[in-house]
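Running co-folding for adenosine monophosphate.
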Amino acid sequence: MRFDLHCHSTASDGALSPGELLQRAADSDLELLAITDHDTLDGWRQVGDTRGVRLVPGIELSSRWGGRGVHLVGLAIDPDSAAMAEALRHQRRARLERAGRIAEKLEKLGAENPLEGARAIAGGDNIGRPHFARHLVASGFCDSVEDAFRRHLGDGRPGDVKEAWPTLEVATRWIVDAGGIAVLAHPARYKLTATRLRALVDDFVVAGGRAIEVICGSQPPQWTRQLAALAAERGLLASAGSDFHRPGRPWAELGRVAPLPDDCEPVWRHW
Ligand code: AMP
Ligand code: MN
Ligand code: MN
Ligand code: MN
């Protein structure tokens, strides 16, 4: 099965429109795709012709857990459910409120018109840190997007504002109530010790979480083995995706997802 269950379009911080994303998926002979834009279903809604690719409704929700930002992928959700409507309403407000707070902090640091600049790059109100980063580069305040994240927007920096996000429990519940499968996104990226990661997974399971991303983009094989073992230990389904945002990044290319280890139970088996 050729699939990708984690990628982004222009509806959030991706570079390709939903149509271009489907074309790229079809060109790579993908059979199954989930567009998982940050906190919006607009990309999914804009897809016209799926070009022979089976499209699963998906989303990547921002949440917080123990003072940390944690991402949850919702797969096979009902986009028209009351729970999704509530999630979208909440996340839209949270993202806008957060953007205002990030902009205030960047202004204090000397950046010019960060909110207007980021909004223009985002092409609307679904403003994320990558849009701020690109504005900081375009306005000469930072040398590169990487530099912007390292100095101002990344983990623990002033522009890393998490207070507006719902708790992990609330965000998981939205996905479950929308009839979807809640997947803990890229568990290896939170820089947690093995003990803390188990605590996160335990809280996630209690909240209704059913799966973890055993594979997200290119990652060291030992991560894959560790995450597969964790999934087996906790009885979780395994998901996998590229976290594709734009062409030109071979480590996160659409559909470039290593096979899941044999002992994993793939999340799509029941669809
Ligand atoms: P947000 O959803 O606004 O919190 O933005 C998070 C997004 O920023 C992630 O989904 C990535 O696409 C991007 N991102 C996170 N860290 C970095 C980084 N160090 N360099 C470039 N992009 C990043
Ligand atoms: Mn992103
Ligand atoms: Mn993410
Ligand atoms: Mn993502």
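Result summary
Strands lie at 3-4, 32-35, 54-65, 68-75, 181-184, 211-216, 237-241.
The pocket of manganese (II) ion (ligand 2) is lined by residues 8, 13, 38, 245 (CB under 6 Å).
Job closed.
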